[in-house]
UniProtKB/TrEMBL annotation:
<dbReference type="GO" id="GO:0022900">
    <property type="term" value="P:electron transport chain"/>
</dbReference>
<dbReference type="InterPro" id="IPR001834">
    <property type="entry name" value="CBR-like"/>
</dbReference>
<keyword id="KW-0274">FAD</keyword>
<dbReference type="Pfam" id="PF00970">
    <property type="entry name" value="FAD_binding_6"/>
</dbReference>
<keyword id="KW-0560">Oxidoreductase</keyword>
<dbReference type="InterPro" id="IPR008333">
    <property type="entry name" value="Cbr1-like_FAD-bd_dom"/>
</dbReference>
<protein>
    <recommendedName>
        <fullName>Flavoprotein pyridine nucleotide cytochrome reductase-like FAD-binding domain-containing protein</fullName>
    </recommendedName>
</protein>
<keyword id="KW-0285">Flavoprotein</keyword>
<keyword id="KW-1133">Transmembrane helix</keyword>
<keyword id="KW-0812">Transmembrane</keyword>
<keyword id="KW-0472">Membrane</keyword>
<dbReference type="GO" id="GO:0004128">
    <property type="term" value="F:cytochrome-b5 reductase activity, acting on NAD(P)H"/>
</dbReference>
<feature type="transmembrane region" description="Helical">
    <location>
        <begin position="12"/>
        <end position="30"/>
    </location>
</feature>
<feature type="domain" description="Flavoprotein pyridine nucleotide cytochrome reductase-like FAD-binding">
    <location>
        <begin position="47"/>
        <end position="84"/>
    </location>
</feature>
<dbReference type="InterPro" id="IPR017938">
    <property type="entry name" value="Riboflavin_synthase-like_b-brl"/>
</dbReference>
Amino acid sequence: MDALQSRRIEAISIAVAVVAIGAGTAYYLYITRKPKPCLDPDNFKEFKLVKRTQLSHNVAKFRFELPTPDSVLGLPIGQHMSCRCV
């Protein structure tokens, strides 16, 4: 009887540990996931022009609004993007 009870306690302990590890892994993956970038390399998207600053006679800085305040552009450092005016 004592052996049966110790096996049951061992099985419950293993089940609790597996559930805890699974929950911890799911939480970690949820927290560390990367947000989906706004840019699509295959299609042009429309963004509202918020501000245009003329820096010199042939250079201007354009500021565009992203869809939400939490949106991420997704453009790697040192990369460029193409703009199409319609």
